[in-house]
Amino acid sequence: MLHYGDACAMKDALSRQRYGMALVVGGAALLLAWLTGDALWLLAAVTLIHLVAGRVPGLVAIGLSAVALAFFLLVSSWQIAEEGQAYVRLATFLAAALLITLFLRDRQGAAPQHRAEHETRLIVESMPGLGWSTDPKGEFRYLNPAVFDYTGRRCEPGQPLSFGGREVLHPEEADRVIEAWVHCLRTGEAYQSEHRLRRHDGVYRWFRAAARPCRDSSGRITGWYGVTLDIDDQKQAEERYRAEHDARLIVESLPSLGWSASPKGRFRYLNPGVFDYLGLSREEIVRTDRFDWMHPDDVERMRESFQRCLKDSVPYEAEVRLRRRDGVYRWCRVVAQPSRDGDGRIIGWYGVTIDIDDQKQAEEALRKSEQQLRLLIDTIPALVWCARPSGDPFYLNKRLLDYAGMSPEEAPQARSKLIHPDDVPLLLRTWAQSVKTGQTFVIVYRLRRADGTYRWHEGRAEPWYDQAGRLVQWYGVNVDIDERLTAEQALRATQAQFQRATQIASLAELSASIAHEVNQPLAAVVTNSHACQRWLAAEPPNLQRARLTTERIIRDANGAAQVVSRIRALFNRAGPIRAPVDLHEVIAEACRLMMDEIVSKNVEIETVLEPDLPAAVADRVQIQQVLVNLIRNGIEAMESTAERPRSLILRSRRDGAGKVLVEVRDRGSGVEDTERIFEPFVTTKAQGMGMGLAICRSIIEAHEGRLWATKIDPVGTAFLFTLPVEPVETA
Amino acid sequence: MTGPDHIVFVIDDDHRIREAVSELLASLGMNAIAFGAAAQYVGFERPDLPACLVLDIELPDINGLEFQKQLADSHHPPIVFITGHGDIPSSVRAIKRGAVDFLTKPFSEQQLLDAIHAAIDQDRRCRGERAELDVLRERLAGLTPREREVLPLVVSGLLNKQAATALGISEVTLQIHRSKIMHKMAAASLADLVRIAEKLEIPVTHSRRAGAP
User: What is the spatial distance between Cα A171 and Cα A204, in angstroms, rounded to a whole number?
Assistant: First the structure.
């Protein structure tokens, strides 16, 4: 009956008292039927028996009573009461017999069957699991008390039985479980599933559910019977085991040295990495002093830190050189953590030792290279700096700081103070331009040294772009070019002086040789004159000798005259070397030669040069001499003018008549007669021979050009000269 | 005139100057010989007369100053330089080396004559001194070796006794030597002898005071 009655067990148990009552009432009704012979009582008895005995005997009883009733009705209609009563009694007898048979049979089978059912019920209700059954559709028919205990639900009469449905399932598995159950219901396969169910207190525990269908003789499923067992503890144990297993695997396969030690520091566990690294067996490691494998230089330090760590019971961390199996000492980092029990006492140490030698070496190499670089940057004979894309400097090398005599903190603010006030606008302009456009920054400016002197520097900066093309920062370098610049200036000055000196020297030589040439005959003339005087004064006068000396006087005087004319002829004949000359170059050279005077006399030179000026045919040196002369005249003319700016304009252009024209215009006091100044020995200067302009004019005229002067309104004088240009060659 | 009592040498590469100077000197009745180059002058057999050398600085074969330096070793007439363009360093150098004057052409008659006369006078004086010294040298050469040993001791002012001791001879012998020396050297007195010894540069080797060198 196990496979059948479980679902109705509850109902049966509830109607058990009714069952007994029915038997008593049914029996009483039968007795009355027997005594009265009334069929109605029989009918009542049969109904009662039906209620008690169930369907099959009930049908029999109904059949019997129907027959009895039929007879009774028949007989009563036939007015045969006696016979009718007899039939009723017979039927009653038969029914009673049946009832007794049933009762006996029920008694006979019910005793062991009831015990078995009771046992089964006990098993089902007290088993350590959730028992249940459903109809073929899956509607619960029975749930054992453990289900209610676990879920905390109650069996409400009139409500369908339920586990709690989806609600009790863990959300992660609900779909899977329901799907599996529906699948089994459809196919009839045995149901099996592991899932979590929610306990009444909200805790989910793991369960394994298994159910099988029950089929009738025709193979149709009559219901499902299942049990759901709590496997949570087992599951957790498995979980723990797996975790421990994993941990062990991790520790053992760790590519470093894992170990544990007693509170005193004795090794308890060593992972294979330790043996492999040190090349020692477990026994050897335990036997020997741990400091034996350390680098001798580290032992003292390690011993100390080790003792301190044991004493203070704090996490341990150290770097030490360990001797590897091949005898090489390598840097390792040792990290250990104490493990404590509930009372806070240390129950062991767990540590790991990692080979960091490669990393250490890389770090060392990096540090060295960085140091090298820093040293390089700090010792390089240049001032190095870096600036943000915005242009603010954020790094200055040591040399720069030393040069400026300031600390790294005050440097960025003090930058503007370092630059010579005259150079600040130019620098700011150039730098702003570079920052805006990202172009290379180049400037020559003066930087103040710690002692307060300004020195010329050449500053350069290049931007650095990242891969995305963004300007990351500026790298700049300043080189002290003060000495070079000073040397260059000195050289230029020397050159100019030398040039002038050679000019003076050649002039002196020339004058000396002219003087000699002229003096010789003059000396002879003078001496002969004296002799002649003597001869004439003698008593008597020696006329013959006097005549001789006079002849000599005439001869030598003529000789002197010839010398002079020869010199003049020499000057006239010595035609200049004619070659195409770029006048702009000559102007630039002349300005360079006069630079010292231009600067010292505070004169501003302005050049207005016509582009593509044709080359002049001239002797470059002579034209240069003319220009130098005119520039010098201009400068000297402005020497006394303090109220006006001293400016000298050099202009070049075509004169419109196939010649080129050069103009030197000063803002000096001006000249009275613009023609007389070209005459020899005419000068407006306190010191001067008055030959300069005369020579200039003769040079220009020798070039088939013209040199003249004009007054400028309101002040100043312009000297202009023209020179022929190179004739255009026709092939 | 009983022959020239002096001579003026003129060295100048310019013949006009040579002619003019010679003519001027001739008009003054002076005796002049002119040369175009220094080498000609060196090769010339100079007469034994007080002389003067009028020397141009710029000579074709040698610079006048250099030539002066070469002449410095021998007895040569005083030099009067003449130059076309004299500079201060050259003139200083010339005067330092004993030139009488340094004239820049064209020079005046008076300048030249003054210089020439001064030079000739200087030469004449030098020549006289040289002649006197020659006589004294000749006399010195006439002394015997012993007398030449005695002379320095005597002119040093030693007493006869001291001198005799120094030479390891008797005082009498020394006195004989001394009187012979006085005679041979034609000295009128001891003071005269000392003066002569000074001219001849005989060193004073002894001192009368004992112990001193």
Answer: 10
In this complex, do A522 and B107 lie within 8 Å of one another by their Cβ atoms?
no
Kindly state the percentage of chain A with pLDDT values over 90: 5
Confidence of residue A570 (pLDDT cuts 50, 70, 90): low
pLDDT band of A660, cuts 50, 70, 90: very high
Task: For residue B25, give the chain A residue with the closest CA.
Answer: A531
Of all residues in chain B, the percent with pLDDT exceeding 90 is 9
pLDDT in tens, B16-53: 889 899 988 988 888 899 998 888 888 888 888 888 99
* Fold adopted by A579-724: Heat Shock Protein 90 (3.30.565)
B80 touches chain A (CB under 8 A): no
Whether residue A550 lies within 8 A of chain B, CB to CB, comes out as no
Closest-CA residue to A421 (of A447, A402, A449): A447
Range in A33-47, A123-137, B41-55, B150-164 the model is least confident about: A33-47
Closest CA to A130 of A161, A109, A103, A157: A161
Q: Hey, what CATH topology would domain A488-573 get?
A: Helix Hairpins (1.10.287)
Q: Are residues B59 and B34 in the same domain?
A: yes
Q: Which of A191, A262, A256 is nearest to A228 (CA)?
A: A191
Confidence label for B115 from pLDDT (cuts 50, 70 and 90) = very high
Q: Measure A504 CA to nearest chain B CA, in Å.
A: 17
Q: What is the CATH number of the domain that holds B187?
A: 1.10.10.10
With vertex at residue A627, the alpha carbon angle to CA A625 and CA A631, rounded to the nearest 5 degrees, is 120
Cβ atoms B160, B127 nearer than 8 A: no
Q: Does A538 touch chain B (CB under 8 A)?
A: yes
pLDDT by residue (tens digit) across A462-480? 888 888 888 888 888 888 8
**Nearest CB partner across the interface for A524, out of B16, B58, B109:** B16
Q: Which residue would you say has higher pLDDT here, A33 or B184? A: B184
Question: Does the interface ipTM go beyond 0.90?
Answer: no
Q: Distance (Å, rounded) from C-alpha A299 to C-alpha A307?
A: 12
Judge if B18 and B91 occupy the same domain.
yes
Chain-centroid distance of CA A63 in Å reads 100
Inside any domain, residue B34: yes
Chain A contact present for B127, CB below 8 A: no
Is B87 in the A-facing interface, judged by CB distances under 8 Å? no
Question: Closest by alpha carbon to A297, among A326, A324, A266, A329?
Answer: A329
- Contact check, Cβ <8 Å, B106/A530: no
DSSP B72: T
Pairing of strands B7-11, B32-35: parallel
Whole-model pTM over 0.80: no
C-alpha pair distances (Å), A548 with each of A243, A503, A544, A555, B25: 147, 44, 6, 11, 15
A524 contacts: CB under 8 Å, gap ≥ 6: A552, A556, B14, B16, B17, B19, B20
**Alpha-carbon gap, residue B76 to A35, rounded angstroms:** 214
Judging contacts by C-beta atoms under 8 Å, the chain A residues touching residue B26 are 531, 545
Share of chain A above pLDDT 70, in %: 81
Domain edges within chain A: 2-125, 127-236, 254-362, 380-480, 488-573, 579-724
- At the topology level, CATH places domain A254-362 in Beta-Lactamase (3.30.450)
Is CATH 1.10.3720.10 what the domain over A380-480 is classified as, yes or no?
no
